[in-house]
Amino acid sequence: MIIIVILFILIFNIFPIFYGIFSSIYINNSFSFSALFQTLGAKYFYISLLITTFYALFSAFISTYVSLYISKLIKFNKFAFIFLVIGWTIPPYIGVPVWRTFFEKYTDIYINPITSFISAILISSWFLIPFTSFFLYTFSETQNKKYLESFLLESNKIDIYYKKIVVPNIKGAIYSAFILNFLKAFKDFQVPWLLVEGGAPLSFGITDKGIIGATTNLEVLIYKLFNFESDISQVSSISLLTILIITSVYLLSRKLNSKIKMNISYFSKTLSYLWIFSIIYFFYILLTLAFSDSQSIYLNGNFTLKNFKYILDDGIVKSFSNTMLIAFITSLLSIILSMYFAYFLLNIKNGENILNFFNFLKIFSGLHIIIFIFYIYSKLRLLNTFTSVILMLVAKNLPFLSLLSYHYFKNFPEDLFLLAKLDNIPKNTFFFKILLPNSFPLVSSLFLLSTLNSFNAFLPPLVFLFDENKYTLSIKLYSYVGAASTQYPQWNLFGAASFATFLILLILTFLLLKISKISYIKYL
């Protein structure tokens, strides 16, 4: 079983990189660096890289800056915490199209590059804020409570306490949050694609690969070339260079070591409350779409419940059952493999370091890796099967779920492990007869997390599944409105299906928070 886990992680994280290297230099049955040199000399690559860098920088800064105040707010405001959980629950394949209706209706997002770029940054930051706020909240809670108690004896201004005591002591965590958000935004595909399909055309974006838009970052560029280019070496070259850039950014961030200054202010407070208000406005838009009889966002429709009947007749139940099947098998495999792997690592000297390395590999995840897995699947004839999605999701879950399991098992009484050794209880027997039955909170948390990941999955089913009868909920919703170039989006059906899907996700999320400790969220 241990070998299976290691193979899962290596095959889906390391092997695709080597496959990409090989594909980019092995052309027409001979080795050549022509594709790499061609990419390095291409105008479209540098324009896209520039867009990606600024998009990631602005998204990371805004999200970290706002989250710093929200992490303080949720400590004293229960409603702020609820809004944060709700925001964390909204998947991009629902959230981005909903915001798209707003920007499409009230701005010139499709023709103005600046509007396209700013809109994408705002939405990207909007999605990053919940994770970042929970992350910073966890570190702020590690501060000595005596500081807060003594400070409150002399002052009621909590903001000053955070400015003078908390923030200076969590500068490392703030910097880490900024770097994590930068890397996430650097690899972001869903926001720039689902919002404006690469953005409004740039005046200087005319290249031999078409017109580069204001949000055509590297991931969008890779996807466009993947769909329209028959030359695998070209796609592989851009993907490989993307991986090298991500690695360089990570290594450089380690060298800089906390060279960022940020604190709470009235401006961050204002932005924080605007973010909370935006959650309310988001649901106003969603409900307006879900209960309107008009497919267009430009025509005022009448209230109706028929949209829910239409989606039932349109195969939404089939998509739901597909998602549940994938989620159940993925969760089952993820739980068994991750818990057993964590137990194995608990008994070796450098177990935690191995886990940290496997989780470090997750920084390379993204569309640029999935493209290589697509080519591998095509040779194995696994495309257009649920197996292709399940294997990908299990591989994605394993490092994180193993880390959770490892820390959970570390809190078990040491005497329990010692007695098992003294009684010569086999390790497998100890795991299945003693450890597993006494880990219900962990098993429940892993199951719900894995199920949520399966429901939120968009890229694997988008790339690997072709038949409509195999669509998951995320792809079914995408089929109603598509990308920006879709001529006849069915916004009312999208709204109804999104509302139903979100309710399922919200129930799963609150179950997760009920069962597991909030401290687990620091690993998300």
Topology:
Elements (H helix, E strand, L loop, with lengths): L1 H12 L1 H11 E2 L2 E2 L2 H7 L2 H34 L1 H12 L2 H15 L6 H28 L4 H10 L3 H12 L1 H16 L3 H7 L4 E7 L2 E4 L4 H11 L3 H25 L9 H25 L15 H8 L2 H31 L4 H10 L6 H14 L5 H25 L3 H9 L4 H9 L4 H17 L2 H6 L8 H9 L9 H25 L9
Antiparallel strand pairs: 1-2, 3-4
| Global mean pLDDT | 89
Main beta-sheet annotation: 2 strands, antiparallel
Which homologous superfamily in CATH is the superfamily of the largest domain?
A: MetI-like
Largest sheet, spatial ordering of strands: 1-2
Compute the separation of the termini in Å: 25 Å
Measured on Cα atoms, how large is the radius of gyration?
24 Å
Helix content: over 70%
Describe the fold and architecture.
The protein has 524 residues and is mainly alpha-helical. It has two domains: 2-21 and 299-523, Orthogonal Bundle (MetI-like fold); 37-290, MetI-like (MetI-like fold, Orthogonal Bundle). Helices cover 74% and strands 3% of the residues. The chain has 25 helices and four strands. The strands form two sheets. A two-stranded antiparallel sheet has the order 1-2. A two-stranded antiparallel ribbon has the order 3-4. Helix 2 (15-25) crosses helix 13 (232-256), helix 4 (43-76) crosses helix 10 and helix 7 runs antiparallel to helix 11 (190-196). The longest helix has 34 residues, at 43-76. The two termini are 25 Å apart. This is ABC-type glycerol-3-phosphate transport system permease component.
